[in-house]
Amino acid sequence: xxxxxxxxxxxxxxxxxxxxxxxxxxxxxxxxxxxxxxxxxxxxxxxxxxxxxxxxxxxxxxxxxxxxxxxxxxxxxxxxxxxxxxxxxxxxxxxxxxxxxxxxxxxxxxxxxxxxxxxxxxxxxxxxxxxxxxxxxxxxxxxxxxxxxxxxxxxxxxxxxxxxxxxxxxxxxxxxxxxxxxxxxxxxxxxxxxxxxxxxxxxxxxxxxxxxxxxxxxxxxxxxxxxxxxxxxxxxxxxxxxxxxxxxxxxxxxxxxxxxxxxxxxxxxxxxxxxxxxxxxxxxxxxxxxxxxxxxxxxxxxxxxxxxxxxxxxxxxxxxxxxxxxxxxxxxxxxxxxxxxxxxxxxxxxxxxxxxxxxxxxxxxxxxxxxxxxxxxxxxxxxxxxxxxxxxxxxxxxxxxxxxxxxxxxxxxxxxxxxxxxxxxxxxxxxxxxxxxxxxxxxxxxxxxxxxxxxxxxxxxxxxxxxxxxxxxxxxxxxxxxxxxxxxxxxxxxxxxxxxxxxxxxxxxxxxxxxxxxxxxxxxxxxxxxxxxxxxxxxxxxxxxxxxxxxxxxxxxxxxxxxxxxxxxxxxxxxxxxxxxxxxxxxxxxxxxxxxxxxxxxxxxxxxxxxxxxxxxxxxxxxxxxxxxxxxxxxxxxxxxxxxxxxxxxxxxxxxxxxxxxxxxxxxxxxxxxxxxxxxxxxxxxxxxxxxxxxxxxxxxxxxxxxxxxxxxxxxxxxxxxxxxxxxxxxxxxxxxxxxxxxxxxxxxxxxxxxxxxxx
Length: 760
What we know:
Elements: H1 3-26, E1 46-48, E2 51-54, E3 71-77, E4 80-85, E5 90-96, E6 100-101, E7 116-118, E8 121-125, E9 132-134, E10 144-145, E11 151-152, E12 161-169, E13 172-179, E14 182-193, E15 196-205, E16 212-218, E17 223-227, E18 234-239, E19 242-247, E20 254-262, H2 269-274, E21 295-297, E22 308-312, E23 327-332, E24 338-343, E25 348-352, E26 361-367, E27 375-379, E28 382-386, E29 391-395, E30 405-410, E31 423-428, E32 434-438, E33 453-456, E34 463-467, E35 476-478, E36 484-488, E37 497-501, E38 537-539, E39 548-553, E40 566-570, E41 575-584, E42 587-598, E43 602-608, E44 615-620, E45 631-638, E46 646-652, E47 655-660, H3 666-669, E48 675-681, E49 693-694, E50 704-706, E51 710-713, E52 719-723, E53 730-740, E54 746-755
Parallel strand pairs: 2-7
Antiparallel strand pairs: 1-3, 3-4, 4-5, 5-8, 6-7, 9-16, 10-11, 12-13, 12-30, 13-14, 14-15, 15-20, 16-19, 17-20, 18-19, 21-26, 22-45, 23-24, 24-25, 25-26, 27-28, 28-29, 29-30, 31-32, 32-33, 33-34, 35-36, 36-37, 37-38, 39-40, 40-41, 41-42, 42-54, 43-44, 44-45, 46-47, 47-52, 48-49, 48-50, 48-53, ...
């Protein structure tokens, strides 16, 4: 090759390299698959979650909302899984080749978008109709809602069939339910024959005066089935292409196995016949602990010269099970040194050693597999956990520090597969009734039981709606005298974040998600009321609370000057507010003022510890929060120093009175330049949030400025009276203060206040 030829070759190669580089640069980048934060987490033998589909498939025809809404997926070994539907008492599907993919779910991401996805090959399924029958009849008497999904909703009537809970015994899960009042224990398992998965169910059925039918699979003509021979009491039958077991009337408990497999029965019957019938009753007394190891962390004590410091109860974020620790609810045991904490990915942990020093905190994993728990309450030393699907009461049957029976205390509400259809917080009143709030953001139009506060009777048997019209209420509180407050968050039909003081029957402003509307289908439309019940107070969005958490009434006399008041948490800004309240002729109104500290994560749950009298808060990192850490569990401890904060606001036609926790410097208080008062209103509409509009001209963006005409100060120097012109009801009033306290401390703060009715 001549030098000239070599030069041409090199030039050609260089040009080709440029073309390749340009093509690579211009080519669209391959999207990396989303990774779940719990892909490596040991979630335990089961997981409660909605399943929308199987990987690589669309939703099944005739199966509304995907595979199952209230599903409990059980790992069976041999890489096989079944999912039990607690509403319909059916095994919704069984598959081989994997468990669940949480990559797009709230359990696996900081912000999810879909239910879980089943991984593997579907081997059988049942339709979304009752999985149990009485005397050959499978009747679905649930309320039928003609909305955009057009389906029956909620659990079956309890007199027909009731899911009672599940027992964990080693790697086995035993479901407990009733059919026509007859007790049933039902344990799934699986074994492999020549690469084919055989799904088996072991039963214990109490005496029955009528026949009970149990569906094994639908469209099952190509399936083989087998049962343990139990005289003539148990037979296999077909019913409209449904393979089922019929249990005839019997006077003594029956125990037997039933199996189903794709293919002929003789391909697996020999192996099936070798399988013993387990003594399920003996499996319901507690098994060996799964999470034997305890973990130790050391808390840190806050510092500073203020009235309150923030101590950290360090969570076991690094643990042998890769459990993603995001605190979503907590409460204290009677001794006050131990607490139970639930996490968004389904765990409950018990921490001990909560004392003044926090030097040795001991953590024990207590329960797993719960459905996005966002509330926890301890009653008589029993842990109650609010998941999206039910309130679960946890029982440690053998005293090994781990839950063995996950009791369905109450699950009498329907759920939506929407990623945002959470159930929030859990409180009780002085009579023992339970309360929580249900989300309606992203929920299909016309689905009842969403955007409401639920009240559940002390025994879990009754459920009723207290108020409606909530959008995304990430928290609430119940006071010592039955007072109920609830937050809500800015969005469609919600001008700004707010705190509602709940009155029975109230409509709180959110008629439905406009993104779900149809202009042509009347089943996908909602009626907008003329007005709504105003909140106790609005909270400005951008600088104060872009995402509200829950509340707590101050029941402690060890937490400074605020006993009897109300605390509000900000998930969005990872901070804490004191919420002032004013009752004017039965109408509640009030405002917020921020405490001068922040937290490492978005806080949304608050409780006072009866033992030390201090406030504890917890939360996590997700959407719409400035918190940087995955979780926070903190104590807000009173140091005894002056709080130096506004305490109450009272309105009257000629001005407002502001009372402080401590005396104000008189000269500072009387300087008009130390005050700035503005007010504005919001528009209630289907738009996302609202601009600020002048109260004097509600269609003109902006604020009105109110001049302070003069200032009076009380004899004890704790109350200042600001004379304002013509005080009227207004959605938002801002009072900025730049004062000096009597002890010389500077006070620069802002009160945001709502006036629903002017006081006298």
